[in-house]
Amino acid sequence: MSFKAIGREGVLLAVANSxxxxxxxxxxxxxxxxxxxxxxxxxxxxxxxxxxxxMNALGSLITGYLSDFVNKLSLFTVLSLASGSLVLLLIxxxxxxxxxxxxxxxxxxxxxxxxxxxxxxxxxxxxxxxxFSLSSSLTVVFNVIGSSVAVLPNYMGRMxxxxxxxxxxxxxxLSIPIMLNAVRRIGINVLEVKISGVSLRDLRELKxxxxxxxxxxxxxxxxxxxxxxxxxxxxxxxKFHISISNLSIVYAASNATLALGTLAAPVFSRILRSRxxxxxxxEGLATGILALMPIIVNLPALLILFIxxxxxxxxxxxxxxxxxxxxxxxxxxxxxxxxWMLLSSIPRALGPGIGGYLLNSGYLDLPLYITSxxxxxxxxxxxxLLKNVEKVSRLTTIK
Length: 399
Description:
Elements: H1 7-18, H2 21-37, H3 42-67, H4 72-88, H5 95-107, H6 111-125, H7 128-149, H8 152-156, H9 158-186, H10 209-214, H11 218-228, H12 232-240, H13 244-272, H14 275-292, H15 299-327, H16 333-360, H17 366-386, H18 389-392
Helix pairs in contact: 1-6, 1-7, 1-9, 2-7, 2-9, 2-12, 2-13, 3-5, 3-6, 3-16, 4-5, 4-6, 4-9, 6-16, 7-13, 7-15, 11-16, 11-17, 13-14, 13-15, 14-15, 14-17
Protein backbone atom coordinates (compact mmCIF):
# COMPACT_ATOMS: atom_id res chain seq x y z
CA MET A 1 0.00 0.00 0.00
CA SER A 2 1.44 3.36 -1.03
CA PHE A 3 1.49 6.38 1.21
CA LYS A 4 -0.24 8.16 -1.68
CA ALA A 5 -3.41 6.32 -0.72
CA ILE A 6 -3.62 8.41 2.43
CA GLY A 7 -4.84 11.39 0.39
CA ARG A 8 -4.82 15.10 1.13
CA GLU A 9 -7.56 14.85 3.72
CA GLY A 10 -5.64 12.06 5.46
CA VAL A 11 -2.52 14.21 5.56
CA LEU A 12 -4.56 17.00 7.14
CA LEU A 13 -5.85 14.58 9.78
CA ALA A 14 -2.30 13.44 10.45
CA VAL A 15 -1.13 17.04 10.86
CA ALA A 16 -4.03 17.81 13.22
CA ASN A 17 -3.02 14.77 15.29
CA SER A 18 0.65 15.59 15.33
CA UNK A 19 1.14 19.35 15.51
CA UNK A 20 0.91 19.19 19.30
CA UNK A 21 4.24 17.38 19.03
CA UNK A 22 5.78 20.85 19.26
CA UNK A 23 4.65 20.96 22.89
CA UNK A 24 6.04 17.50 23.64
CA UNK A 25 9.34 18.38 21.96
CA UNK A 26 9.75 21.50 24.07
CA UNK A 27 8.71 19.91 27.34
CA UNK A 28 10.93 16.85 26.96
CA UNK A 29 13.95 19.18 26.95
CA UNK A 30 13.16 22.04 29.28
CA UNK A 31 10.14 21.34 31.45
CA UNK A 32 11.89 19.51 34.29
CA UNK A 33 14.80 21.97 34.16
CA UNK A 34 12.35 24.90 34.10
CA UNK A 35 10.62 23.57 37.19
CA UNK A 36 14.01 23.09 38.87
CA UNK A 37 14.92 26.71 38.10
CA UNK A 38 11.56 27.86 39.48
CA UNK A 39 12.53 26.41 42.86
CA UNK A 40 11.00 22.92 42.66
CA UNK A 41 12.99 19.96 44.02
CA UNK A 42 13.56 16.85 41.81
CA UNK A 43 11.24 14.81 44.00
CA UNK A 44 8.43 17.35 43.56
CA UNK A 45 9.15 17.52 39.83
CA UNK A 46 8.71 13.76 39.67
CA UNK A 47 5.44 14.01 41.59
CA UNK A 48 4.09 16.67 39.20
CA UNK A 49 5.07 14.62 36.16
CA UNK A 50 3.51 11.57 37.77
CA UNK A 51 0.32 13.50 38.50
CA UNK A 52 0.27 14.51 34.83
CA UNK A 53 0.40 10.86 33.79
CA UNK A 54 -2.36 10.03 36.28
CA MET A 55 -4.54 12.80 34.88
CA ASN A 56 -3.74 11.57 31.37
CA ALA A 57 -5.00 8.14 32.40
CA LEU A 58 -8.24 9.54 33.76
CA GLY A 59 -8.61 11.80 30.74
CA SER A 60 -8.05 8.87 28.37
CA LEU A 61 -10.97 7.01 29.88
CA ILE A 62 -13.29 10.01 30.04
CA THR A 63 -12.62 11.43 26.59
CA GLY A 64 -12.40 7.96 25.04
CA TYR A 65 -15.87 7.18 26.32
CA LEU A 66 -17.29 10.58 25.39
CA SER A 67 -15.82 10.36 21.88
CA ASP A 68 -18.13 7.38 21.22
CA PHE A 69 -21.10 9.27 22.62
CA VAL A 70 -20.96 12.98 21.72
CA ASN A 71 -19.90 14.98 18.68
CA LYS A 72 -16.18 14.30 18.39
CA LEU A 73 -15.31 17.51 16.61
CA SER A 74 -17.04 19.75 19.15
CA LEU A 75 -15.36 17.89 22.00
CA PHE A 76 -11.96 18.20 20.32
CA THR A 77 -12.46 21.94 19.85
CA VAL A 78 -13.48 22.63 23.45
CA LEU A 79 -10.66 20.60 24.93
CA SER A 80 -8.10 22.22 22.60
CA LEU A 81 -9.13 25.72 23.66
CA ALA A 82 -8.93 24.78 27.33
CA SER A 83 -5.58 22.98 26.94
CA GLY A 84 -3.93 25.90 25.19
CA SER A 85 -5.09 28.25 27.93
CA LEU A 86 -3.65 26.00 30.64
CA VAL A 87 -0.29 25.91 28.87
CA LEU A 88 -0.17 29.71 28.99
CA LEU A 89 -0.47 29.55 32.79
CA LEU A 90 3.00 27.96 32.94
CA ILE A 91 4.39 31.39 32.10
CA UNK A 92 3.62 32.55 35.65
CA UNK A 93 6.57 30.55 36.98
CA UNK A 94 4.66 29.89 40.18
CA UNK A 95 5.40 26.35 41.45
CA UNK A 96 1.83 25.97 42.76
CA UNK A 97 0.27 27.07 39.46
CA UNK A 98 2.63 24.85 37.45
CA UNK A 99 1.86 21.90 39.72
CA UNK A 100 -1.87 22.31 38.97
CA UNK A 101 -1.93 23.58 35.37
CA UNK A 102 0.40 21.03 33.81
CA UNK A 103 -1.47 17.91 35.05
CA UNK A 104 -4.76 19.49 34.00
CA UNK A 105 -3.53 19.78 30.40
CA UNK A 106 -3.08 16.00 30.50
CA UNK A 107 -6.59 15.51 31.88
CA UNK A 108 -8.01 17.25 28.81
CA UNK A 109 -6.81 14.38 26.64
CA UNK A 110 -7.50 15.31 23.03
CA UNK A 111 -5.38 12.51 21.60
CA UNK A 112 -8.01 9.81 22.05
CA UNK A 113 -10.53 11.89 20.11
CA UNK A 114 -8.26 12.65 17.18
CA UNK A 115 -7.20 8.99 16.98
CA UNK A 116 -10.85 7.89 16.98
CA UNK A 117 -11.65 10.26 14.09
CA UNK A 118 -8.53 9.36 12.14
CA UNK A 119 -8.84 5.65 12.85
CA UNK A 120 -12.27 5.48 11.25
CA UNK A 121 -10.95 7.17 8.13
CA UNK A 122 -7.84 4.97 7.98
CA UNK A 123 -9.70 1.70 8.47
CA UNK A 124 -12.26 2.51 5.80
CA UNK A 125 -9.48 3.12 3.30
CA UNK A 126 -7.40 0.16 4.46
CA UNK A 127 -4.36 2.28 5.28
CA UNK A 128 -4.02 1.96 9.06
CA UNK A 129 -0.31 1.12 9.09
CA UNK A 130 0.59 3.84 6.58
CA UNK A 131 -1.61 6.47 8.20
CA PHE A 132 -0.43 5.96 11.77
CA SER A 133 3.18 5.74 10.63
CA LEU A 134 2.78 9.07 8.81
CA SER A 135 1.05 10.59 11.83
CA SER A 136 3.81 9.36 14.15
CA SER A 137 6.48 10.61 11.78
CA LEU A 138 4.88 14.06 11.60
CA THR A 139 4.60 14.12 15.38
CA VAL A 140 8.31 13.54 15.56
CA VAL A 141 8.96 16.28 12.98
CA PHE A 142 7.04 18.67 15.19
CA ASN A 143 8.99 17.28 18.16
CA VAL A 144 12.15 18.33 16.34
CA ILE A 145 10.72 21.82 15.92
CA GLY A 146 9.85 21.87 19.62
CA SER A 147 13.26 20.59 20.64
CA SER A 148 14.86 23.29 18.50
CA VAL A 149 12.65 25.99 19.98
CA ALA A 150 13.68 24.78 23.45
CA VAL A 151 17.08 26.40 22.94
CA LEU A 152 15.55 29.89 23.38
CA PRO A 153 15.88 30.04 27.20
CA ASN A 154 19.61 29.46 26.84
CA TYR A 155 19.89 32.76 24.96
CA MET A 156 16.92 34.77 26.23
CA GLY A 157 16.71 33.65 29.86
CA ARG A 158 13.28 33.81 31.46
CA MET A 159 11.79 35.53 28.41
CA UNK A 160 12.82 32.49 26.37
CA UNK A 161 10.74 30.23 28.61
CA UNK A 162 7.74 32.53 28.19
CA UNK A 163 8.11 32.48 24.43
CA UNK A 164 8.28 28.70 24.15
CA UNK A 165 5.12 28.29 26.25
CA UNK A 166 3.34 30.74 23.96
CA UNK A 167 4.47 28.69 20.95
CA UNK A 168 3.18 25.54 22.67
CA UNK A 169 -0.24 27.09 23.21
CA UNK A 170 -0.41 28.29 19.61
CA UNK A 171 0.30 24.78 18.34
CA UNK A 172 -2.65 23.47 20.35
CA UNK A 173 -4.95 26.22 19.08
CA LEU A 174 -3.84 25.67 15.48
CA SER A 175 -4.90 22.03 15.56
CA ILE A 176 -8.55 23.18 15.68
CA PRO A 177 -8.86 24.74 12.18
CA ILE A 178 -6.72 21.96 10.69
CA MET A 179 -9.02 19.29 12.13
CA LEU A 180 -12.11 21.21 10.99
CA ASN A 181 -10.75 21.46 7.46
CA ALA A 182 -9.81 17.78 7.38
CA VAL A 183 -13.23 16.59 8.52
CA ARG A 184 -14.92 18.88 5.99
CA ARG A 185 -12.84 17.32 3.19
CA ILE A 186 -13.43 13.73 4.23
CA GLY A 187 -17.05 13.65 3.15
CA ILE A 188 -17.96 10.77 5.46
CA ASN A 189 -19.60 10.95 8.83
CA VAL A 190 -16.75 10.14 11.20
CA LEU A 191 -18.60 12.07 13.90
CA GLU A 192 -21.58 9.76 14.06
CA VAL A 193 -22.83 9.01 17.58
CA LYS A 194 -22.44 5.29 18.16
CA ILE A 195 -24.12 4.53 21.48
CA SER A 196 -27.37 5.57 23.06
CA GLY A 197 -26.62 5.86 26.74
CA VAL A 198 -23.91 6.63 29.23
CA SER A 199 -22.92 3.72 31.45
CA LEU A 200 -19.47 2.59 32.54
CA ARG A 201 -20.92 -0.92 32.53
CA ASP A 202 -20.44 -0.83 28.75
CA LEU A 203 -16.69 -1.04 29.26
CA ARG A 204 -17.06 -4.59 30.62
CA GLU A 205 -19.13 -5.67 27.63
CA LEU A 206 -16.91 -4.52 24.78
CA LYS A 207 -16.52 -6.95 21.88
CA UNK A 208 -12.83 -6.06 22.01
CA UNK A 209 -12.35 -7.08 25.64
CA UNK A 210 -10.31 -10.10 24.47
CA UNK A 211 -7.80 -7.72 22.90
CA UNK A 212 -7.62 -5.41 25.90
CA UNK A 213 -6.69 -8.36 28.12
CA UNK A 214 -3.75 -9.07 25.83
CA UNK A 215 -2.62 -5.45 26.07
CA UNK A 216 -2.22 -5.50 29.86
CA UNK A 217 1.63 -5.65 29.57
CA UNK A 218 1.37 -2.07 28.33
CA UNK A 219 1.07 -1.15 32.01
CA UNK A 220 4.65 -2.35 32.57
CA UNK A 221 5.82 -0.32 29.59
CA UNK A 222 4.09 2.70 31.09
CA UNK A 223 5.61 2.20 34.53
CA UNK A 224 9.08 1.74 33.08
CA UNK A 225 8.75 4.75 30.81
CA UNK A 226 7.55 6.89 33.69
CA UNK A 227 10.61 6.09 35.81
CA UNK A 228 13.12 7.68 33.41
CA UNK A 229 11.75 8.92 30.06
CA UNK A 230 10.31 12.27 31.25
CA UNK A 231 13.42 12.74 33.40
CA UNK A 232 16.01 11.81 30.77
CA UNK A 233 17.02 15.40 30.12
CA UNK A 234 17.41 15.92 33.88
CA UNK A 235 19.52 12.73 34.04
CA UNK A 236 21.89 14.08 31.38
CA UNK A 237 21.89 17.47 33.11
CA UNK A 238 22.76 16.05 36.53
CA LYS A 239 25.19 13.32 35.47
CA PHE A 240 27.06 15.05 32.64
CA HIS A 241 26.16 18.73 33.24
CA ILE A 242 25.00 19.11 29.63
CA SER A 243 23.60 22.59 28.92
CA ILE A 244 20.04 23.17 27.69
CA SER A 245 21.32 24.28 24.29
CA ASN A 246 23.25 21.04 23.81
CA LEU A 247 20.33 18.97 25.08
CA SER A 248 18.13 20.74 22.56
CA ILE A 249 20.45 19.66 19.74
CA VAL A 250 20.53 16.07 20.99
CA TYR A 251 16.75 15.84 21.26
CA ALA A 252 16.29 17.44 17.84
CA ALA A 253 18.67 14.91 16.30
CA SER A 254 16.92 12.07 18.14
CA ASN A 255 13.53 13.17 16.89
CA ALA A 256 14.77 13.69 13.33
CA THR A 257 16.02 10.09 13.31
CA LEU A 258 12.76 8.87 14.82
CA ALA A 259 10.75 10.66 12.11
CA LEU A 260 12.50 8.58 9.47
CA GLY A 261 12.14 5.44 11.56
CA THR A 262 8.40 5.71 12.07
CA LEU A 263 7.89 6.51 8.40
CA ALA A 264 9.71 3.29 7.54
CA ALA A 265 7.84 1.20 10.12
CA PRO A 266 5.24 -0.22 7.66
CA VAL A 267 8.03 -1.34 5.32
CA PHE A 268 9.80 -3.03 8.24
CA SER A 269 6.61 -4.86 9.25
CA ARG A 270 5.96 -6.01 5.66
CA ILE A 271 9.47 -7.49 5.49
CA LEU A 272 8.79 -9.45 8.69
CA ARG A 273 5.20 -10.14 7.53
CA SER A 274 3.87 -9.35 11.00
CA ARG A 275 3.17 -6.23 13.00
CA UNK A 276 3.37 -8.22 16.24
CA UNK A 277 6.82 -9.61 15.43
CA UNK A 278 7.98 -6.14 14.43
CA UNK A 279 6.78 -4.60 17.70
CA UNK A 280 8.45 -7.28 19.81
CA UNK A 281 11.75 -7.07 17.90
CA UNK A 282 11.93 -3.27 17.95
CA GLU A 283 11.04 -2.96 21.64
CA GLY A 284 13.38 -5.82 22.56
CA LEU A 285 16.37 -4.18 20.85
CA ALA A 286 15.53 -0.83 22.46
CA THR A 287 15.40 -2.48 25.89
CA GLY A 288 18.83 -4.04 25.45
CA ILE A 289 20.32 -0.68 24.50
CA LEU A 290 18.74 1.04 27.50
CA ALA A 291 20.29 -1.53 29.83
CA LEU A 292 23.74 -0.74 28.39
CA MET A 293 23.51 3.03 28.70
CA PRO A 294 24.46 3.41 32.40
CA ILE A 295 27.81 1.69 31.86
CA ILE A 296 28.84 3.80 28.88
CA VAL A 297 31.31 6.52 29.95
CA ASN A 298 31.99 7.96 26.49
CA LEU A 299 29.46 10.76 26.09
CA PRO A 300 29.28 10.81 22.24
CA ALA A 301 28.75 7.04 22.20
CA LEU A 302 26.11 7.36 24.92
CA LEU A 303 24.23 10.00 22.94
CA ILE A 304 24.25 7.75 19.87
CA LEU A 305 22.75 4.96 21.97
CA PHE A 306 20.15 7.35 23.36
CA ILE A 307 19.08 8.34 19.84
CA UNK A 308 19.04 4.72 18.63
CA UNK A 309 17.01 3.52 21.61
CA UNK A 310 14.47 6.27 21.18
CA UNK A 311 14.05 5.46 17.49
CA UNK A 312 13.64 1.70 17.91
CA UNK A 313 11.23 1.90 20.86
CA UNK A 314 8.96 4.44 19.24
CA UNK A 315 8.98 2.84 15.78
CA UNK A 316 6.79 0.17 17.35
CA UNK A 317 4.05 2.63 18.37
CA UNK A 318 2.34 3.21 14.99
CA UNK A 319 2.43 -0.52 14.22
CA UNK A 320 0.70 -1.44 17.48
CA UNK A 321 -1.76 1.43 17.05
CA UNK A 322 -2.65 0.33 13.51
CA UNK A 323 -3.08 -3.28 14.66
CA UNK A 324 -5.49 -2.25 17.40
CA UNK A 325 -7.31 0.08 15.00
CA UNK A 326 -7.91 -2.76 12.53
CA UNK A 327 -9.05 -5.22 15.21
CA UNK A 328 -11.57 -2.91 16.90
CA UNK A 329 -15.13 -2.18 15.64
CA UNK A 330 -15.76 1.48 14.83
CA UNK A 331 -18.39 1.88 17.53
CA UNK A 332 -15.86 0.87 20.20
CA UNK A 333 -12.77 2.64 18.89
CA UNK A 334 -12.84 5.64 21.24
CA UNK A 335 -13.33 3.53 24.33
CA UNK A 336 -10.76 0.90 23.37
CA UNK A 337 -8.09 3.48 22.65
CA UNK A 338 -9.05 5.24 25.86
CA UNK A 339 -8.69 2.07 27.94
CA TRP A 340 -5.43 1.19 26.17
CA MET A 341 -3.98 4.59 27.06
CA LEU A 342 -5.35 4.13 30.58
CA LEU A 343 -3.36 0.89 30.95
CA SER A 344 -0.17 2.79 30.18
CA SER A 345 -0.92 6.08 31.88
CA ILE A 346 -1.83 4.96 35.40
CA PRO A 347 1.48 3.12 36.00
CA ARG A 348 3.28 5.91 34.15
CA ALA A 349 1.94 8.24 36.84
CA LEU A 350 3.87 6.35 39.51
CA GLY A 351 7.13 6.24 37.59
CA PRO A 352 8.30 9.89 37.71
CA GLY A 353 7.94 10.00 41.48
CA ILE A 354 10.18 6.94 41.78
CA GLY A 355 12.66 8.27 39.24
CA GLY A 356 12.70 11.74 40.77
CA TYR A 357 13.31 10.32 44.24
CA LEU A 358 16.20 8.17 43.01
CA LEU A 359 17.80 11.07 41.13
CA ASN A 360 17.39 13.31 44.16
CA SER A 361 19.04 10.62 46.32
CA GLY A 362 22.03 10.32 44.01
CA TYR A 363 21.13 6.98 42.41
CA LEU A 364 21.39 8.38 38.92
CA ASP A 365 21.63 5.08 37.00
CA LEU A 366 19.16 2.98 38.95
CA PRO A 367 16.07 4.36 37.10
CA LEU A 368 17.52 3.10 33.79
CA TYR A 369 18.06 -0.39 35.19
CA ILE A 370 14.55 -0.51 36.66
CA THR A 371 13.04 0.56 33.33
CA SER A 372 15.08 -2.04 31.44
CA UNK A 373 13.79 -4.86 33.63
CA UNK A 374 10.16 -3.73 33.32
CA UNK A 375 10.48 -3.39 29.55
CA UNK A 376 12.01 -6.86 29.25
CA UNK A 377 9.13 -8.45 31.18
CA UNK A 378 6.57 -6.56 29.08
CA UNK A 379 8.14 -7.57 25.76
CA UNK A 380 8.17 -11.21 26.84
CA UNK A 381 4.51 -11.05 27.83
CA UNK A 382 3.59 -9.35 24.57
CA UNK A 383 5.19 -12.24 22.70
CA UNK A 384 3.22 -14.81 24.68
CA LEU A 385 -0.12 -12.98 24.47
CA LEU A 386 -0.03 -11.48 20.98
CA LYS A 387 1.99 -13.94 18.89
CA ASN A 388 -1.14 -15.54 17.36
CA VAL A 389 -3.44 -12.54 17.24
CA GLU A 390 -2.85 -11.81 13.56
CA LYS A 391 -3.53 -15.43 12.57
CA VAL A 392 -6.71 -15.57 14.59
CA SER A 393 -7.90 -12.26 13.13
CA ARG A 394 -6.75 -13.01 9.58
CA LEU A 395 -4.42 -10.02 9.59
CA THR A 396 -1.26 -11.88 8.72
CA THR A 397 -0.80 -9.77 5.64
CA ILE A 398 0.34 -6.27 6.61
CA LYS A 399 -1.63 -3.59 4.87
